[in-house]
Design goal:
The complex is a heterotrimer of chains A (503), B (369) and C (360).
Chain A (H helix, E strand, L loop, with lengths): L1 H20 L3 H9 L4 E7 L3 E7 L5 H14 L5 H7 L6 E3 L2 H10 L1 E5 L7 E5 L28 H9 L7 E8 L5 E8 L5 H12 L9 H8 L11 E3 L2 H10 L2 E5 L5 E4 L11 H4 L2 H30 L7 H11 L6 H21 L2 H21 L5 H14 L5 H39 L1 E2 L2 E2 L9 H4 L28 H4 L8
Antiparallel strand pairs in A: 1-2, 2-4, 3-5, 4-5, 6-7, 7-9, 8-10, 9-10, 11-12
Chain B lengths: L1 H8 L12 H10 L7 H9 L3 H24 L5 H43 L6 H16 L3 H20 L2 H6 L13 H15 L5 H4 L6 H29 L2 H6 L3 H6 L11 H31 L3 H18 L3 H38 L1
Helix pairs in contact in B: 2-7, 2-11, 2-14, 3-9, 4-9, 4-11, 4-16, 5-14, 5-15, 5-16, 6-14, 6-15, 7-14, 9-16, 14-15
Chain C lengths: L1 H17 L10 E2 L2 E6 L5 E9 L10 E9 L2 H11 L4 E2 L5 E5 H6 L2 H9 L8 E6 L2 H6 L8 H14 L7 H9 L6 E7 L4 E10 L2 E7 L3 H8 L6 E6 L2 E17 L6 E16 L7 H29 L6 H8 L5 H7 L4 E13 L4
Parallel strand pairs in C: 1-5, 2-6, 6-7, 7-8, 13-14
Antiparallel strand pairs in C: 2-3, 3-4, 8-9, 9-10, 11-12, 12-13
The chains are: A alpha+beta (503), B mainly alpha (369), C alpha/beta (360).
Chain lengths: 503, 369, 360
């Protein structure tokens, strides 16, 4: 394993060497000519020059309407003339080979006076092929904004900027990935955010060693404080409104080109159980739903382990009235509870995986057919008890109540150690497993901030928006977790000004 | 010169410190352990139903001792190791510190074996202790290796989880005989003082302040919280005692080894009966801070005295606890260990005033010179 | 790499070695009721019933398996039954334990000691004394849809809500061990096709020494604890009146020196009159006053009878000694026991009839 890691470290150096080989512009052009979609020809109209671009990356409208017409109608002799005459924004003259390479690859048009010239003019004509902004599917909400991020970074930034028309909204960009050079943006609001958080994020992003970056989830895994933890340590969301409210709280957001998910950090474990719906409903309703969700998560993780523990070791705990039901449902089952539970849990996971890989409509059918048909058949055949079937189905259902998909996966899996613990030492085993996970959560950090935050370190102020959500006028301060530079959200004295009757 | 040394020896980076509020949880969770599940029996044997007075007296004494500990630490320049070094010099001081280390280890060890005993008696008579102890100590190692902040977190969680268990006291009160509680004192002062000693034994744990004091941010402010912690513990014990007195008759209580667990038996909900299984499982949360903080305190002393890596000391101590824990079996031996650690704890508490006097004298001498 | 292997090894060792020998619920024979009788040759005869849960369809019909063994002690009964059972015996859910009157008159101390020590048992378990053979009582099924244990458990529990004072293993042990307090247990009797709670059995330590019939239970409970339900029929002017208790309060007070204490038991009873059989008068406040007087008279008489019975048999189920102990610092048990038979107990009953003659 270590050997493999060492190889990984050596790789980037060799990549850098190959890059250095294309030292001059002509060599670059030679290299590009290998590709069929690289267009490189000499223009012989009024202006004589060499024009090169990637036809798959360029917008032909800009090329035909603005560039070629200008070049053909007017006679331009220097690159600077071109820069002034061509009616496209942000045209620049440069001879920096690195810049030229990068820009051409993104779809800039490169014009040289002569083939051999080192100095070129670069005209941006990137064609943006992108999906339209659509409604969020993973984090759907009934009320509230219905825009979701898409795969284009600029569109995503646009979605954020239009919600926060602030000069302080700062966007830092960097390229990550030795091969892919993916654009990654760090977004924060100056004056609210704690600079040390931004520094940590930037430092960690810069430290990323990877060849190509497909999605933001790569970043979650790489820059996580503890990458062996099953818990995601950066919140990922596809809702621009959620990102914006996080930015306003003083968090840092990371956007990745090609990924329809934004990451926000630092985050806490309770944040994963809060839905954006919670803020669109009156606070007491939202609180109730949050608590239901929390209960659902606890139920989902603990119900089958408790079933194993109680049925295997502690049957004194079953009340006499329930005893008949449970015993008669189990009476013909040939397997011990642990085996029964593991088989059924795995069957549910199987259905879920199968459903997730299939197209939506077939997926649903598979879920229903699998759930109902296999379930009843298994009970009829006497392989599982119907009490357990109910418990497993409910706990599977409960694991779907988490608003963030990533934590849902965690919850699906962490119940298995609990089941093993239950089989080992009954309730004591379950409790030991729980201690381990609580200890783990206490140890975890998100960008250097405690992950288990409103609970430990206990911060009563942050508990106002953790398991419960108090009304907005009670939340006049930003969460303590971020150590924001400006802690006040609004003027509390004005918010809570007391009015007399009839005033 | 000495002062310079002090600040150099105990410069703990700020991100390892905890805020003063947590002293409440640290002190309380360390004081409440396995003892509370069955301490009533020992009190009643000494002072009958008048033992509630002993609990109050013990609480008062502990407040005084806590005050002394703070006096000791205020200008002691750090922890007990530093104080020992200043008063007794490097070698004798180091030796005394190691005695503390042994005492802390014994405390952690006592808790481990008593908890295993509870599980063996109440849940799994055929428990494979060598596996269970291994997993338990592995868990402890995992938590202790997280450092003091993680242990503080465990203390906090343990208090939060322990509070609902306190609510279960309602059931025995409902089933009990409230007329048993009547303030008539029928025992002599010596009886009550004997019971006071017994209850101080179950109150042990605040002496750990001597070792984690440098980890508290603004330690002066933590004084208040420490006293709250001791007060809260006294109240919890008082409630336990009163509830047990209501639920059991005096002679019956002398038969019952684990009063609180027996009382859990009558807790019934429509979906669950026989709450003692849940109670014992939950008690793991209450017991863990005891073991973790005990082990942490015990291993920090060698680190401070010999400058060795605490990581390795923890592993060593885990192993040192593991083998005796597997070998010890049976009520008499466990009782003996409990008595031993109680006796030592008593001496440690008595040693604190002595140390305070010695320290004041040595400070005065030093000032003159 | 090495570290990972060691870790994997440990996990598998823990999983393989750590598992407790276990049997899931349905593989156990869950004993819910056990009865003890006097057997032959100084041995005891134990009877258990094990409910047989069938497959889900006929959940309603409860079938039971009865096993009877001869054994030397109550602990031995478990061992002997194990020999007859196809599944391991689990006594964790034991809900009712019955002793025949014969065995209770011999001494229950040994079995009680076992009960108080076994951590598997529930403290809410009911104990009962059977007037007759507990084997017969267990083995005759009473209802179609309930097991015997559930039936008897329900029977005792229901009665504790009404006329019978609260009872359980814990209550028994409390009084058994307490100084100046003696336990009591419900008495069950099998009639032709049903079982009834026929009275209270009073114990001196583990020994059954006295019993009173079910007509006196109400008075006993009234003296023993506060309660809100329960009925009692009382004779009045040649007829019978059914009185329903809607709240009674009992208050003990102690006066005088320890050598010669004087107890006052004040009972305040609020009652409704439901039925008047054989009384040819109209309900009126005057009649109510008369009834109240008669009731007070009746209850005072009954209570005095009970207490003189207790004194005669030297039992103290009301816990007067225990009460004195909590009130007087210098309580001495032997002295108390010597004086018990001459103890001055004054019962003052106050009856208030709140409703009468309401027809619904």
């Amino acid at each position: 394993m270590w050997k493999w890691k060492r190889k990984d470290k050596q790789q980037p150096e060799s990549v850098q060497q190959t890059k250095k080989q294309s030292g001059t512009l002509s060599e670059f052009i030679q290299a590009m000519k290998q590709s069929e979609d690289f267009v490189h020809y000499e223009l012989s109209g009024n202006t004589r020059c060499t024009i090169s671009y990637l036809k798959t990356m360029c917008d032909s409208k800009i090329l035909n309407r603005s560039v070629l017409t200008t070049l053909n109608e007017e006679s331009l002799h220097t690159l600077h003339d071109m820069k002034e005459r061509i009616p496209v924004e942000n045209v620049r003259v440069t001879s920096k080979i690195n810049l030229i390479e990068e820009k051409v690859m993104f779809g800039y048009i490169m014009i040289q006076m002569h083939e051999t010239d080192e100095e070129v003019v670069l005209i941006p004509s990137i064609s943006l092929e992108s999906r339209n902004v659509s409604i969020p599917e993973v984090e759907f909400s009934v009320v509230g904004p219905k825009e979701a991020f898409v795969e284009t970074l600029n569109t995503n930034i646009n979605l954020i900027r239009k919600r926060l028309p602030l000069p302080q909204l700062t966007i830092k960009e960097m390229n990550i990935g030795k091969v892919s050079k993916t654009r990654v943006c760090v977004i924060y609001i100056n004056g609210i955010v704690n600079q040390s958080n931004v520094e940590t994020v930037e430092q960690r992003l810069k430290g990323i060693e990877i060849d190509h970056l497909t999605d933001s989830s790569f970043i979650t895994q790489i820059i996580a404080d503890n990458s062996n933890s099953p818990f995601p340590q950066l919140l990922d969301t596809e809702r621009p409104d959620r990102v914006v409210s996080n930015l306003v709280e003083g968090k840092v957001a990371i956007l990745v080109e090609g990924s329809p998910h934004a990451l926000t950090c630092p985050t806490t474990v309770v944040e994963f159980f809060g839905a954006s719906d919670d803020y669109f409903l009156p606070w007491h309703l939202a609180t109730a739903f949050r608590l239901i969700r929390l209960f659902a998560v606890i139920f989902s993780v603990l119900s089958t382990p408790l079933y194993v523990a109680v049925l295997t070791y502690h049957h004194e705990m079953i009340p006499a009235a329930l005893m008949a039901t449970i015993v008669s449902s189990r009476s013909d089952i040939p397997f011990p509870p642990i085996l029964e539970v593991i088989v059924l849990e795995l069957a549910i996971e199987l259905l879920r995986e199968a459903g997730a890989r299939l197209p939506t409509k077939i997926g649903q059918t598979i879920g229903i057919v699998g759930g109902i048909v296999i379930g009843t058949a298994a009970v009829d055949a006497g392989l599982t008890s119907n009490v357990l079937l109910i418990i497993v189905a409910l706990s599977a259902l409960a694991s779907f109540t988490t608003p963030v998909y990533q934590i849902g996966n965690t919850i699906r899996l962490i119940r298995f150690p609990f089941i093993v613990g239950a089989q080992l030492w009954g309730l004591v085993g379950v409790s030991m497993c729980m201690v381990f996970f609580i200890g783990h959560l206490i140890k975890l950090q998100s960008i250097g901030r405690p992950f288990f935050e409103p609970l430990y370190p206990l911060r009563v102020k942050d508990l106002k928006d953790a398991f419960i959500r108090l009304p907005f006028n009670k939340q006049t301060e930003r969460p303590v977790l971020m150590r924001t530079e400006d802690t006040q959200r609004m003027n509390p004295s004005r918010v809570n000004a007391k009015r007399d009757i009839d005033e | 010169m000495n002062k310079l040394n002090n600040s150099k020896g105990l410069n703990i980076p700020e991100n390892y410190l905890v805020t003063p509020t947590y002293v409440f949880f640290l002190i309380h969770s360390m004081q409440v352990g396995v003892g509370i599940l069955g301490f009533e029996k020992y009190l009643v044997e000494k002072a009958g139903f008048d033992a509630w007075i002993s609990v109050l007296i013990a609480g008062g004494i502990l407040h005084i001792i806590l005050w002394m500990i703070y006096r000791l630490l205020q200008n002691g320049g750090g922890d007990i190791v530093e104080i020992h070094k200043n008063i007794f010099g490097k070698y004798l001081g180091g030796f005394l510190s190691l005695l503390f280390c042994a005492y802390f280890t014994l405390l952690a060890f006592t808790v481990v074996i008593t908890f295993i005993e509870v599980i063996k008696v109440w849940v799994f008579p055929g428990l494979h202790v060598w596996v269970f102890a291994f997993v338990l100590l592995f868990l402890v190692y995992y938590l202790v290796s997280g450092g003091f902040r993680v242990i503080t977190g465990v203390c906090l969680i343990s208090v939060i989880i322990g509070l609902p268990i306190l609510l279960l006291k309602y059931f025995p009160v409902e089933a009990g005989h409230t007329m048993n509680i009547f303030p008539v004192i029928s025992h002599s002062v010596t009886d009550i003082l004997g019971a006071t000693k017994q209850s101080i034994l179950s109150f042990l744990g605040l002496e750990f302040l001597l070792i984690y004091y440098p980890f508290i941010k603004n330690p002066q402010k933590s004084k208040k919280w420490a006293h709250y912690g001791v007060f809260f513990t006294t109240m919890v014990y008082l409630i336990s005692v009163l509830v047990t007195f209501v639920y059991y008759s005096e002679e019956q209580l002398k038969q019952v080894v684990w009063g609180t667990i027996s009382a859990w038996k009558i807790v019934e909900f429509p979906f669950i009966e026989r709450f003692e299984f849940v109670g014992i499982a939950m008690w793991l949360y209450v017991v863990l801070p005891n073991i973790c903080l005990g082990l942490w305190g015990a291993t920090r002393i060698p680190k401070r005295v010999f400058n060795v890596k605490q990581k390795y000391v923890v592993i060593l101590f885990c192993i040192a606890i593991y083998f005796p824990a597997v070998l010890i079996d049976g009520r008499p031996m466990i009782d003996a260990v409990n008595n031993l650690s109680g006796q030592l704890g008593m001496y440690v508490l008595m040693y604190i005033p002595v140390l305070l006097v010695l320290k004041t004298i040595s400070d005065k001498v030093r000032k003159r010179t | 790499m090495k570290k990972h292997w060691i870790f994997l090894m440990m996990v598998s060792v823990i999983l393989l070695a750590g598992c407790m020998p276990s049997r899931s619920v349905e593989e156990n024979a869950i004993v819910q009721i056990v009865g003890y009788d006097v057997g032959e040759e100084e041995r005891m005869r134990g009877t258990v019933s094990i409910p047989q849960y069938g497959k889900s369809e006929d959940k309603q019909a409860a079938s039971e398996l009865y096993l009877t063994v001869e054994a030397d002690s109550s602990k031995d009964v478990e061992v002997e039954i194990q020999k007859q059972s196809s599944k391991p015996i689990s006594i964790g859910k034991l809900a009712v334990t019955l002793y025949s009157k014969e065995i209770a008159e011999k001494d229950l101390a040994d079995t009680v000691d076992v009960l108080s020590r076994d951590p598997r048992l529930s403290r809410n378990m009911f104990l009962g004394i059977v007037d007759g053979s507990s084997k017969d009582l267990i083995e005759s099924g009473y209802t179609q849809d309930e097991t015997t244990s559930k039936h008897l458990q329900g029977l005792i529990e229901n009665n504790t809500l009404h006329n019978f004072p609260s009872t359980s293993l814990h209550d028994f042990l409390y009084a058994y061990y307490a100084e100046g307090m003696d336990p009591f247990l419900p008495m069950l009797k099998k009639r032709e096709s049903f079982v009834e709670l026929s009275g209270v059995a009073f114990f001196k330590k583990g020994l059954l020494v006295a019993e009173v019939p079910d007509t006196k239970i109400f008075t006993f409970k009234m003296l023993k604890e506060n309660f809100v339900k329960g009925m009692q029929d009382l004779p009045f002017e040649g007829g019978t009146i059914m009185m329903e208790n809607i709240g009674s309060n009992v208050d003990y007070s102690l006066s005088g020196p320890l050598e010669n204490p004087k107890f006052t038991i004040k009972v305040k009873l609020k009652a409704e009159v439901n039925e008047m059989a054989g009384i040819d008068r109209k309900a009126s406040p005057k009649l109510a006053r008369e009834m109240e007087e008669k009731f007070v008279e009746y209850f005072n008489k009954e209570a005095d009878e009970l207490i003189s019975l207790f004194k005669e048999k030297d039992v103290d189920p009301l816990g007067l000694g225990n009460f004195t102990k909590t009130r007087k610092g210098d309580f001495d048990l032997t002295q108390w026991q010597d004086n018990y038979s001459e103890l001055d107990v004054d019962v003052q009953v106050d009856v208030e009839i709140t409703e009468y003659g309401i027809f619904s």
